[in-house]
Amino acid sequence: MMGHLAAGWLNRPERVQEERPDEVVANMGLESDHVVADIGAGSGYFSFRIAKLVPDGKVLSVDIEPEMLKIIEQQKAEDGVINVEEVLGEIDNPNLPANSIDAAIMVDAYHEFSHPFEMINGLYNALKPGGRIFLLEYRGEDASVPIRPLHKMTQEQVVKEMNVFGLEWTETLDFL
């Protein structure tokens, strides 16, 4: 788990080139009034990018570390952002109301869950009809990514795990 002491690393300038966050967010197909949950939001790196695309909606920045949520709260105040809300999650519950979100995004977070079934169940219940879950994980199929296999997932694994909830894979974007 990424601790709050590493928040500076989450906001490093080279992350724009490494992970193309603006392209990711642009490809989410969000509408201006959508409610999006950023699960494992950390410092809010993706939350604030998403917030710009949903000016009439909001971003629920979910993290299990209160310190990370304080960082997001400070950034909101500095930038005058009003459509990002911090949510203190638990290791087995994102703490989101039923039928409350249009989308959820997890960036390099899902593989870290100690209780993946419970977390996805919480997200599934929070999704509005037609809602979507976006997973950004290092691809286990790609041997060229120099990180431990423990921190990678294959598409087959993700599809299998999400199918338990009746979620259907629709697309894998290959620009990352």
Short description:
The protein has helices at residues 7-10, 15-19, 21-26, 45-53, 66-79, 116-126, 155-163; strands at 35-39, 58-63, 84-88, 101-107, 127-136, 138-139, 152-153. The protein is an alpha/beta fold and 176 residues long.
Keyword list:
alpha/beta; 176 residues; globular; two-stranded parallel ribbon; 33% helix; single chain; five-stranded parallel sheet
What would you note in describing this structure?
The chain has 176 residues and is an alpha/beta fold. The protein contains seven helices and seven strands. The strands form two sheets. Strands 3-2-1-4-5 form a five-stranded parallel beta sheet. Strands 6-7 form a two-stranded parallel sheet. Helix 4 links the parallel strand 1 and strand 2. The chain is globular, with a radius of gyration of 15 Å. The two termini are 22 Å apart.
Helix-strand blueprint:
Elements (H helix, E strand, L loop, with lengths): L6 H4 L4 H5 L1 H6 L8 E5 L5 H9 L4 E6 L2 H14 L4 E5 L12 E7 L8 H11 E10 L1 E2 L12 E2 L1 H9 L13
Parallel strand pairs: 1-2, 1-4, 2-3, 4-5, 6-7
